[in-house]
Structures are given as structure tokens and as C-alpha cells.
């Protein structure tokens, strides 16, 4: 009996101790020292909404509890592992599963390793050339040669990619734009950087894998069973698609929610691009079939493909950030249709 009472008292005391520990507040300088960070870094994380203090005193001092300190340690660990700020925000908010984020980071590190290997190879070849004062000239010529070869290789891989996932009868001029929402051939210009060359290696590796090709071909074929080939020119359709992407990007930058009128209107305009009508509204049956197909085809390989393309074509990066908002908006609309 006494033992049970003592255990309850011990438990109560421990809970009180834990609460007391959680309630203790530390100044920003103390927190920076405890975590091996710096005051400007901790302040910056507050300014971008990644780590808010538990309290701001009347004197303007940021105060942190053990909970915020733990969160800061986690952020610092993820930054050490080279995760981006946006990725960390999404992970902490629960928008991206941790295992998926880790897989993405492994792929990014693989590309970085290939990039470093390529740079090391250039330096070693330059060293072995024993050109003396001409070494810099040799290095420049070597990089020019590698970049030119890579650009030609990129064109070849791109052609192989689109031809492998589309049926022969599907018009060639529509393939790239249906796959990526933009004619990426127009983005091929200048020399490829080392990171782009490494990404190209990974893209080639992907499309040399029969299983991956078959999976993506299945997704494309099933989508083509639903959508309609546009009646307008590729150029006009591309312009409308680009306008749609810019509008969604603006909405995302303004923190619009998936259910907001501006995002829902954007989604309707996007679906219209693939419908058999020239103006809104599209039929609910078509919207449902299109939305369900888009949501069901979001495979890991498709995400990997998009990430590689964002490295190869940097101008696509900002638009690819809107994917999450777009798919959330599709999901929300389907849920509303189910309630009707």
C-alpha cells in the first residue's frame, strides 16, 4: 500500500519536474550557445517562420523553452545533412513524410557525388597533361568539350525518354509538353554545369531501367485514355499552360490555400487545357476522371524524374514547387464533389 502511494508520489513529482523543465525559458544567446549555433541563425529561423520563440518579452527579447530548443537541434541536424529550408518546413509541418524526404536527399547527394567525381576527373586530367602554364587553357578546352558532348547527349536522352513512354501514333510535337507541361527542348542552351551533367547521368540511368520505363509508360497511356489532344497549336497551348503555372506560383507565394477561390479557379483552367471543350465549365464527370488519374499516378519514379528535370532545367524549379498545392486543390475539389 505504502509502496503504491510512494510510486504515485514519485510519478507526480517527475511530471512536475518535467513541466518545470519545459517551462524554463532561455535567452536567444543561451540557446545559440547550447546548440552550437549563432544568434543571427536562430533569429533568421524566427524571421522565416521556421522556429518561433515561446515568448517575446516587453523588451523585445526572444525566449525559448526546451521544446523550441529540441526543434532547433532537429533543424540544425537537417541543415547539416544539406536539407533545404523549404524541405525542412514541409517535413516539420508533416506535409512530406520523413522517409520520402530522406530518399530525396539521398538522390540529391548521389548527384552531388557524381558532380564532385566529374570535377575531380577534370582536375586529374589537367594535372596529367603537364601543360605547365598552359594548364588553365587545357582545363578550359576540356570543360568545353565535356559540356558540348553532354548537351548533345541530353538531346539524345530527351528524345529517347519521350519516345519510350508515348505511343507511336501520338504526335511528336505534343510529347514533351504533355509530360512536363513545357517544351523542354527550348530550354537546352549553353553549357551544362557539373551538377546538370550528373543529373543527366541519373536521367539516363532511369530510362535504361525497363521497369521504370514501363511504369511511366503505363501512367502516360492511362492518362491519354482520358484527355483530349488540344485543337489549338502547340505554341498557343504552351502559352496558356505557362500563364496557368505563373498564376498558381503567384497564389502559392501569397500562401493561398487549396480551397481558396483563386487556386480552385486555376485548377479549373488547368483541367480545361486537357478537356474536349473550349471554355469553362468542364463537365464534372471529366473533372473527376482527370483528377483521380492525376492523383493516382504520383509515383516515386515520377517525383524523381521531376526532381532531375528541375536540376537540368533550372527555370522549371519555381513552377515545380506548385505541384503540392495543385494536387491538394484537386483532392479538395473531389472531396467537395463527393459531398454534393
Walk me through the structure.
Helices cover 71% and strands 2% of the residues. It is mainly α and 340 residues long. The chain folds into 2 domains: 79 residues, Multidrug-efflux Transporter Regulator, Chain: A, Domain 2, CATH 1.10.1660; 242 residues, no CATH class. It has a 3-stranded antiparallel beta sheet. The longest helix has 32 residues. The N terminus is likely disordered.
N- to C-terminal separation?
Answer: 60 Å
Q: Find the structural class using helix and strand composition.
A: mainly alpha
Global morphology: flat
Portion in helices: over 70%
Number of helices: 16
Write the layout of secondary structure elements.
Layout: H1 2-23, E1 26-27, H2 28-35, H3 39-47, E2 55-56, E3 62-64, H4 66-80, H5 85-93, H6 98-129, H7 135-165, H8 172-180, H9 194-206, H10 210-224, H11 234-253, H12 261-272, H13 284-296, H14 300-312, H15 317-320, H16 323-339
Helix pairs in contact: 2-3, 6-7, 6-9, 7-9, 9-14, 11-12, 13-16
Amino acid at each position: 500500500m505504502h509502496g503504491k502511494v510512494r510510486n504515485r508520489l514519485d510519478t507526480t513529482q517527475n511530471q512536475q519536474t518535467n513541466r518545470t523543465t519545459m517551462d524554463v525559458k532561455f535567452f536567444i544567446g543561451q540557446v545559440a550557445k547550447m546548440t552550437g549555433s549563432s544568434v543571427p541563425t536562430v533569429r533568421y529561423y524566427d524571421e522565416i517562420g521556421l522556429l518561433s520563440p515561446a515568448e517575446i518579452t516587453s523588451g523585445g527579447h526572444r525566449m525559448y523553452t526546451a521544446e523550441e530548443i529540441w526543434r532547433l537541434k532537429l533543424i540544425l541536424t537537417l541543415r547539416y545533412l544539406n536539407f533545404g529550408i523549404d524541405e525542412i518546413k514541409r517535413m516539420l509541418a508533416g506535409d512530406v513524410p520523413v522517409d520520402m524526404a530522406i530518399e530525396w536527399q539521398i538522390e540529391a547527394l548521389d548527384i552531388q557525388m557524381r558532380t564532385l567525381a566529374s570535377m575531380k576527373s577534370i582536375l586529374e586530367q589537367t594535372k596529367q597533361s603537364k601543360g605547365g602554364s598552359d594548364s588553365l587553357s587545357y582545363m578550359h578546352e576540356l570543360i568545353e568539350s565535356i559540356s558540348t558532348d553532354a548537351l548533345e547527349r541530353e538531346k539524345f536522352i530527351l528524345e529517347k525518354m519521350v519516345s519510350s513512354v508515348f505511343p507511336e501514333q501520338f504526335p511528336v510535337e505534343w510529347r514533351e509538353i504533355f509530360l512536363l507541361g513545357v517544351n523542354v527542348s527550348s530550354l537546352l542552351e549553353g553549357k551544362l554545369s557539373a551538377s546538370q551533367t550528373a543529373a543527366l547521368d541519373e536521367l539516363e540511368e532511369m530510362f535504361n531501367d525497363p521497369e521504370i520505363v514501363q511504369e511511366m509508360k503505363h501512367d502516360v497511356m492511362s492518362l491519354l485514355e482520358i484527355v483530349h489532344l488540344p485543337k489549338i497549336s502547340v505554341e498557343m497551348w504552351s502559352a496558356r499552360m505557362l500563364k496557368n503555372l505563373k498564376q498558381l506560383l503567384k497564389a502559392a507565394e501569397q500562401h493561398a490555400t487549396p480551397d481558396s477561390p483563386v487556386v480552385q479557379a486555376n485548377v479549373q483552367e488547368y483541367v480545361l487545357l486537357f478537356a474536349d471543350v473550349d471554355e469553362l465549365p468542364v463537365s464534372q464527370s471529366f473533372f473527376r476522371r482527370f483528377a483521380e488519374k492525376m492523383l493516382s499516378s504520383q509515383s516515386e519514379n515520377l517525383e524523381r524524374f521531376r526532381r532531375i528535370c528541375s536540376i537540368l532545367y533550372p527555370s522549371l524549379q519555381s513552377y515545380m514547387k506548385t505541384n503540392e498545392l495543385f494536387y491538394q486543390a484537386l483532392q479538395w475539389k473531389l472531396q467537395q464533389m463527393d459531398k454534393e
